[in-house]
Amino acid sequence: MNQILITSALPYANGYIHLGHLAGAYLPADIYARYLRLSGKKVLYVCGSDEHGVAITISAEKENTTPEKIIDKYHFANYEAFQKFGMSFDIYSRTSIEEHHQIALEFFADFLRKGHLVEKEEEQFFDPKANMFLPDRYVEGICPNCGSDKARGDQCDSCGAYYNQIELKNPRSIITGETPEVRKTTHWYFKFQNFQKFLENYIESHSQDWKDNVLQQSRSWLKLGLTERAITRDLLWGVKLEKITDIPREKTAGKALYVWFDAVLGYISATKVWARNTLKNEEEYANWWKNPETDYYAFIGKDNIVFHTLIFPAMLYAREDGYILPKNVPANEFLNLEGQKFSKSRNWSIDLQDFLNDFPEPHFVDVLRYSLLMNLPEQRDADFTWKDFQTKNNSELAAIFGNFINRTSQFLSKNFNSSIPEIDLELLLEWKQVVNYLDDTYSANIDNSSCDGFSAKLLNNNDLLLIYSIWYGIEKSKFYLNKFRLKEAFFEIMNIARAANKYFNDEAPWKSIKENPLLAAKTLNFCIQVANTLSITLAPVIPFACEKLQESFGRKPETGSSNNAVPVENLWDKSKFPTIASGTKFELKQVLFPIIEDKTIELQISKLGMQPDNNSNVVDVSNLMSIDDFRKIELRTAKVIEAERVAKAEKLLKLQIQIGEENRQLVAGIAKYYDPSEIIGKTIVVVANLQPAKLFGIESQGMLLAAKTSDGRLSLITTMEPNFPSGAEIS
Questions:
Q1: Topology of domain 364-598, CATH
Q2: How far is C-alpha 155 from the geometric centre of its chain's CA atoms?
Q3: Sheet holding 169-173: strands in order across?
Q4: What's the pTM?
Q5: Considering only 48-62, 70-84, 197-211, 314-328, which range has the smallest mean pLDDT?
Q6: Could you name the CATH architecture of 621-716?
Q7: pLDDT tens readout for residues 464-483
Q8: How far apart, in whole angstroms, are the C-alpha atoms of residue 635 and residue 633?
Q9: Contacts of 143 (CB under 8 A, 6+ apart)
């Protein structure tokens, strides 16, 4: 039997988890892990905090504390919030631990010995007063492109230009305010290009089972050609290289592994810690990471795709030590908030811990999990709104699932003393026969299956429709879950609850209890069987409500929570059958999902304050230009002929454009928003009479125009007519 290893991207320990993070890499993985455990699979779910890098040291300086205190603050806060949210990690580790440093250095040393690393000497700013080389975020100056005096080490926020830090004019250290010197430093680069062919074959081997967005982003990188990638930087906070004995100490002093390299290895170090704590032998980690019987699924957001489809697989392959590769990387797109991008700096965000403070009751956590699930950005960016949160509770969880459970419980209490009524065992046997018949006639096209060919002796048409709805919902959900289409999977499960409500209405036990008590008993017995089915199949999404529901049957709940990789029986398939014994007490003394009032939602909306873009479109009239000044700007249409990424500058594209009969080269900071293939052939708008500027040593002969919102979204200015001629004047 295959075992399943699941990882979620390690959250960075310099801030709190917000709802966008949950929808990207965490809730989908937890739902999938719980589903697999309930299906009898052996599952290990691994995560932890990413605790190295420049952003950690900057946060520490802003809060006048140490990096250690920063990572402790956010690691434990996020872990506690995750627990309250119902995340079923088998281990939540961290990258600051010694076990992680050891395995990261092992990878580095192994790559060094095998010749996968190249040593380079390069120029970088050095602050003599602080006695340290300055990472890009530690230096500011005047942009070499637009002249803004707020430009950072490698990027100008004013014009979007990217450049080498030593191109900054009037640079200054943000630590001391002093002018830094240019000094030479040594770094090591991973020969990423050596694995081009291997990665091309790996990606194409998954062309039929991976999401299109994952394939396209990976192919885009491969099409441009892989290049050497820096693996170290001058930084005191991180996995330090001083323990590498194969390099002279004077070269490794002050050097640390680049966070992109060591973070993904946190999955392996976490597994080692789990094996040591749970199995009392950390070397048992290899049974997961070096075992061909392991299926590995890496859940991430779209900003982490290439790290898990190209970089991490290249690192695992380069070890030549039997490490397995991801079988699938089901990346999600971004979740927005009330129509706009999450932004901590603009206070346009909902942190998980803030939600839990306002809604501490477990049923509210279930509502959040359900509403996020039903808005998962599986194929495109999606949106969380408070009104939808309210609707998902009131119109679905309360009105459909909760209503069925509540009316069944109340009727059972009133008429059967809260005990599951005795019925003819032949009815339950025939239920099982129907399920077996459906299983036997199952085909690849599940929608062709039905109960039409089954000759029922005791079951009426309502009973058959109910049983078929249960069977179909469970089988269809398995089909979607195995394709990582989680929204569709649990829409099918909720359809079981819809069918259960219809069954209750059509059977009308409030009438039959007077006219035919045996029929009413059968109806309630069947309703309880469905309630049990729902308590299993909805558990991956709303585990707290399902735990309460299962406890009401007087048994130990099974919601797919962490079980130290010890498989249980296949409860998912078993829930197609009637398994609750007659005479079992079922007492549910409270409503699972109370109605959420408007005033509760209005309060949450008010906490967001004014719409973030309310003032973003207001023109500053204090600095108006004359019409003569405007006429100096020459705007023209241009056709994009070629486009490619700029090596070592992940945010830059180099474009070859045509303005009328003239060909030019532009460098633009749009690689985060557009793949090269997307813009080739487009007719864009450029400033044609701008002085040339160099970005990363590449000359840019003009500037393209793009619209940018306050939350960072960017859209190129293009013509409505795709074949509009280039060189046309904009007026």
A1: Isoleucyl-tRNA Synthetase; Domain 1 (1.10.730)
A2: 26
A3: 151-152, 139-142, 169-173
A4: 0.84
A5: 48-62
A6: Beta Barrel (2.40)
A7: 999 999 999 999 999 999 99
A8: 6
A9: 149, 151, 156, 158, 159, 161, 163, 168, 169
